[in-house]
Amino acid sequence: MDWLPSLLPITVVAAIALFALKEVLEFIRRRSADRRKSHAFRTLLARECEVNHWAHWRLQETLREIHEDHEKGVKATYTATELPGGDALWRRTDQGGGYSGGGLPDARTDLISKIMVDVATMDKKLFTPLENAYDSLIEMRHIRASLLRFVSSKDEEDQMHLQGFPEYGLSELEGVKEDLDKLYLECTGRSIDRTDMRVRG
C-alpha cells in the first residue's frame, strides 16, 4: 500500500485506517457480548429444564398411578384443585380411605418463548434443541390440562376417557423427557437426572 500516500492525502488514509480499526473493535465487542449472552441463556435454560423436569416427573407419576389403579381394578377417586398461578393440587383417595397426592405444577415456557428469537440469531447450535423442547413442553401442558379436565368433569364421556388416557399420556411424556434431556445436555454438557429437579426456580 506504499502507493496510497501518493494518491490520497495522509488525513484520508488515517481516517480509513481509523474507521477499519473501529469496525474491528466493534466486531470483537459484539462477539464478546454475544458469547456472554449465550452463556447466560444456557444457564437460565438449564434451570428451566430442572423446573420442568420436576413438573414432568410429577405428571408422569400421577398418570402412572391412575393407570395402575385401572390395571389392578382399584376403585379410587381423583380430585384436582387448581391454584392461583397455574399449579394444581392432586389427591387420590382409595376405598379404604387411604390417600396420596401432591402438587401438579404446569410446564414453564415463558422464558423459552421470550428468548427464542435471540437464540435463533445468536446460537444456532442451541436453537434446535430449544425449539424441540418448547414444542414438547406445549404437548406436556396439553396432557396435564386434559387430565385435569377429565378428572373435574361430570360428563360420562370424559370419565371414560380417563380410563385410557394415562397410557397415551405416559407414551407422549417419554418424548418430552427426551427433548428436555437434549436441551439440558446442550446447555450443561451433561445429561439431566433425578437430582436435577427444582420445585420452582
Task: Offer a quick outline of the entry.
The protein has helices at residues 4-7, 10-72, 110-122, 124-152, 156-188; strands at 76-82, 88-94, 99-103.
Characterise the protein shown here.
With 201 residues, this protein is mostly helical. The chain has one domain. Helices cover 71% and strands 9% of the residues. The chain has 5 helices and 3 strands. It has helices at 4-7, 10-72, 110-122, 124-152, 156-188, and strands at residues 76-82, 88-94, 99-103. It has a 3-stranded antiparallel β-sheet. A hairpin with a 4-residue loop joins β2 and β3. α3 packs antiparallel against α4 (124-152) and α4 (124-152) runs antiparallel to α5 (156-188). The longest helix is centred in the N-terminal third of the chain and has 63 residues, at 10-72. It is elongated and about 95 Å long. 22% of the residues are buried. The model has no long low-confidence stretch (mean pLDDT 83).
